[in-house]
Design goal:
Number of helices: 5
Oligomer: single chain
Order of helices and strands: EEEHHEHHEEHE
Largest sheet: 5 strands, mixed
Strand order of the largest sheet: 1-2-4-3-5
Shape: globular
Structural class: alpha/beta
Distance between the termini: 34 Å
Strand content: 15-25%
Length: 175
Amino acid sequence: MLFRSRFGFTDGGHPLFALEIGEAPGVRVGRPVVRLTGAHHGNEVVSTDVVLGIADFLVGPQAQQLRATFDFWLFPVVNPEGFEARTRYNDSGADLNRDYGMYWDDELAPFSQPETRAQLSFGTHFPPVLSLDYHSEAEFVNTVYDGSPVTPPELATILELAEIYAGPSNLEVIV
């Protein structure tokens, strides 16, 4: 039901881990993948608690049908060095949230950091049908296409999921 995987290392040598939760973790059976990430910014520590809280729910009996339907991959700490130092940035001084190819920092190329390359590699090998990234200091929940003039064709579904996701924290949903 629960399996831990290592997806690489940071420049400082910290391992990058994920938890896989499903009916047959470690075995590829073709179920849709759901990815959850926390602590892109190391100072947003409650995001890790949220991801671990979801993991706790997913391994319980109440989530049996979810585990039979989806494979869940949870990355509680995307930025281990920033998390340890309680800073937004990794040891290389990069804001990982600005290293994904859109709105990246001027001095860096997209996917210049091992942490974001690990996320890119994961998404390439296990394309998620849903990916949720929790930021604990946020005032709202951003949905996909944030900052883009494109209106997603599945906007109604995205907003419905965002409302469910934002509900426990009483956050506003924005596109």
